[in-house]
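Reproducibility note. Readers wishing to regenerate the assembly model reported in the main text can use the exact inputs given here. Chain order matters: entities are listed in the order in which they were concatenated for prediction.
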Amino acid sequence: MNLDQRFVAAGDVLDLATAHATPSAPPAEHRRARRLVVAGAAAVLAAGGAAWWARPPAPGHGSMTSVPQPSAAQIWVPPSSIDRIEVDPSFFESGTRQYGQMRSPSGQVFGVGVGENLLGTLPSDRDRRTVDGTTFGRFEEMSVAVYTAVNECTAVGVQTVEPAWSDEVMAVLAAVHLEAGTVSVRLPAGWTSLGSGPVVPVIRIQFDATIDGHPATYQLKEAVGQPLGSLEGPVGGLIPVDVGDSPGWLGNGEARVLRWERDGVALQLAATNVTTDEILRVATSLVQMPLDRARSSAPPAAAGSTATTTALIPVSQPASCPTNRTLTITNP
Amino acid sequence: MTTPERTVADEFARFVADAGVSVRRALVARYGVDVGTEAAAAALAVAWERWAQIRIMDRPAGYVYRIGQSRARPHVRWRRRAVQFPGESATTADVNAEVLDLFAALRRLPARERTALVLVKSYGYSHRRVAELLGVPDTTVNNLVHRGLQRVRALLEVTE
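Running the prediction on these inputs yields the following structure tokens for the assembly.
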């Protein structure tokens, strides 16, 4: 057995072991958690959903019904070879979940997500404030805060890494208007919309490129026919840059992240240990190609393993609520 | 009016069947079978409780993984439990000896290297997918896998 085979066998053993694991005397919190899991799993199983600890399918293959992708869609690809191309599955029915982003005057990017109201009312233990007639509950974990507001039909969540209830947070919360299935954000002066739209399957491409003798691995993420704001990405600081003739945004965290739109496609290019000039040169070198042709040009294992997404199951709601949700972010 | 609980459960089931499996695999690779399984169960329970909020968040799987990490830390920090992989109990007596050697080597790796290496090499996840799950840049995953593989080869004295 070579090392690769040993790794695969180890994965099988771990899956098997975790399917039958019987941990000794879990702490109270975990016993409670397990009861909740069992309750959740029971609901799931009763609904004909996936088995909780069932042995999962091979990586890359959805466990639900697969549906074909729009293979003729034009995407942007590197002129050189592609290492890997994937189409992400989406857990959500198209139209029921919207996502958008906006940039504050200080350069911070805020995300806003909209979906059906599954909360009912805001939990009472939430840190709450009413801003311009709308009550928001604040919830934070791992330094990303979500400010949630609900009505009978819809929940909206504003995501940020800004300090709790800061001036910019208050400004954007005051701009949020929630009515039935519609959320509109009328941005105040100094703010910029990065757009919004339904959460759709995202295409991911990994490739190597060398600029002036400096090789690096680049990760490209794109959504066809969607504005940039609908392409979910990290919230945090972005600065404006030009990507060829298109306006774009550059994030300089641990990785350099470039986001822009081109011919109806929202794009995000990321790499570490590259300069701004290098990532811009790679971005402007991309060429258009139909999705199915790009997939066929990638290595067979990568293209074959990720060529499908999953069928979608709607979340039901009161009959008085609209089927879809809409999110509009309006510039000042 | 239809029954909301049923369809919410459907949606959550889809999340569990795909992302939930990834979260469990990542936590088991990081903390071992016992702690990892417990942490995954706790994290998914929290996800179920907070699904209304988590479903409208960016990268929900990564978020649930981080909840799992926070639930596993008390075990690691206060009880100093060692990472346990199959091979230490009678129920896994039939595991191939070469695979047991690999588990022994994996136990000696730093946690992040072990997690990235198992997800990429054992389950065939892309670096991008692992990066989003673990909340690190793709290149970090690349480095973790490269270094982890070097260490495993050295520990197993494999030259292939």
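We highlight two features of this model. The first strand of chain A starts at residue 66 and ends at 67. Residues 3-46 of chain A form one domain.
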